[in-house]
Design goal:
Helix content: 40-55%
Oligomer: single chain
Strand content: 5-15%
Largest sheet: 2 strands, antiparallel
Radius of gyration: 13 Å
Order of helices and strands: HHEEH
Shape: globular
Number of helices: 3
């Protein structure tokens, strides 16, 4: 079931999929370096894309702060 939900999400969000893949490649090639969470400093951070048109312009957030960023209203997500 999880794989079907992910497949549906990928179908509905091709720009996000592209941005995620582009960032993953950039990190793998050393073009972009993973940073600690910008809120709490946790080294286990994830990339948060405020704008999928700019795949390398991400905020590095731990899982907790990344989830919180997605709960904010869209107007407040710009940073």
């Amino acid at each position: 079931m999880k794989n079907r939900a992910q497949a549906r999400w990928r179908e509905k969000n091709p720009q996000a999929v592209w941005a995620h893949r582009a960032l993953r490649s950039a990190v793998k090639l050393g073009i972009v370096k993973q940073q600690p969470c910008e809120v709490c400093g946790d080294p286990a951070s994830e990339a948060h894309h405020p704008d999928y048109d700019r795949p390398a312009a991400v905020r590095w957030l731990c899982r907790r702060h990344h989830k919180a960023a997605h709960k904010k209203p869209k107007r407040a997500r710009s940073t």
